[in-house]
Write a structure and sequence with these properties.
- The structure is a single chain.
- The chain has two helices and two strands, in the order E-E-H-H.
- With about 80 residues, it is an alpha+beta fold.
Length: about 80
């Protein structure tokens, strides 16, 4: 895929059926070993999963608030 050279990404989610636009940078939280703490780059080199996860965490205030969520709520947020 193609990613913004500036390291800035705009994503659209839905909250209660209304579109929410979020802008994030591509800096991900990493562990002491240098690997991303949460989702990681795919085998084919794609970074969309960690970028989407970071934006979703921002929409929910932080990564900790993503724990114990319901898949149906995540799908609703992604698709409206």
């Amino acid at each position: 895929g193609h990613y913004a050279d500036e390291g800035i990404h705009a994503l659209r989610f839905f909250h209660k059926g209304e579109p929410v636009f979020l802008t994030i940078d591509d800096k991900l939280p990493v562990a002491d070993n240098g690997w991303p703490v949460n989702s990681r780059q795919a085998i084919n080199g794609e970074w969309w999963a960690p970028i989407t996860e970071k934006a979703f965490a921002k929409m929910n205030l932080n990564y900790a608030n993503l724990e114990h969520g319901m898949q149906s709520e995540a799908m609703r947020a992604l698709t409206g």
